[in-house]
Amino acid sequence: LKPCLVLLSGFLVAMGAALFGPGYDANPNASPRAVLRPTVFLNIYDLTTRISVQLANRLLEPLEAGFFHCGVEVYGMEWSYCACRQQHAEWHPVYGGSPAASGVYKYPPRDCPDHTFRESLELGSTEKSQGTVFRHLRAMRHEWMADEYHLIERNCCHFSVEFCRRLGVGDLPKKVLRLPMLAKTLEQRLCCRGASSCSVLRGDDADVVVDLAPVCRLPEAT
């Protein structure tokens, strides 16, 4: 019986590492990192890899605003949200399934391939265990669908705000949401003048979505 339990434990660890990254461990007492309160980082990127966006963010820096992509780093992996679906649905024997239609995805910390890394801000330590964090992420993968991505009202910065709230850490800097909030205010004012003014800002035009929404090349499944 003992060899079977050892094999099952190894299988769960391997499945967790494949789905959630190298920070996963099925046994919270098996790793020194698992019993510590991990530090949570907000990693901020210049949106896309275009030089023009980097220059624009430099000009907007005195105003504490910019065009940013955000990801939350916890337990050795960074998580974010985009308008791209996953490559395939995932399933874990403990935490259940994750739909392919989800826009939540992971990548190595500070290494998102579609945006230019800018800075990393420490937000504090979470009291949540690895297992609890993964359960939150599993739920959020069902709640944050790729098709529901909205450039102004529901983007990677809003996802980061909600994820950090569930982790119980500090607030995000206002600069990451300043432009979306400004755009929403402008959108509301334009909508008062006629519905036709809203279509471009709301992303109803497919060409605008392709041009402005962050493009993500999801990493190959491991």
- Beta strand %: 15-25%
Largest sheet: 5 strands, antiparallel
N/C terminus separation: 30 Å
The radius of gyration computed from the alpha-carbon positions, rounded to a whole number of angstroms, is 19 Å
Please tell me the overall pLDDT: 77
What structural class is derived from the secondary structure elements? alpha+beta
Q: What is the H/E order?
A: HHEHEEEEEEHHHHH
Total strands: the figure is: 7
Supply the number of helical segments.
8
Unreliable parts: 8-15, 17-36, 196-222
Approximate helicity band:
25-40%
Strand order of the largest sheet: 6-3-2-1-7
Based on CA inertia axes, which overall geometry fits? Answer: globular
Describe this structure in words.
- With 222 residues, the protein is α+β, with helices and mostly antiparallel strands.
- 39% of the residues lie in helices and 18% in strands.
- It contains 8 helices and 7 strands; from the N terminus they run H-H-E-H-E-E-E-E-E-E-H-H-H-H-H.
- The strands form 2 sheets. It has a 5-stranded antiparallel sheet with strand order 6-3-2-1-7. A two-stranded antiparallel sheet has the order 4-5.
- Strand 2 (68-74) and strand 3 (77-81) form a beta hairpin.
- The protein is globular and about 50 Å long.
- Residues 8-15, 17-36 and 196-222 have low confidence and may be disordered.
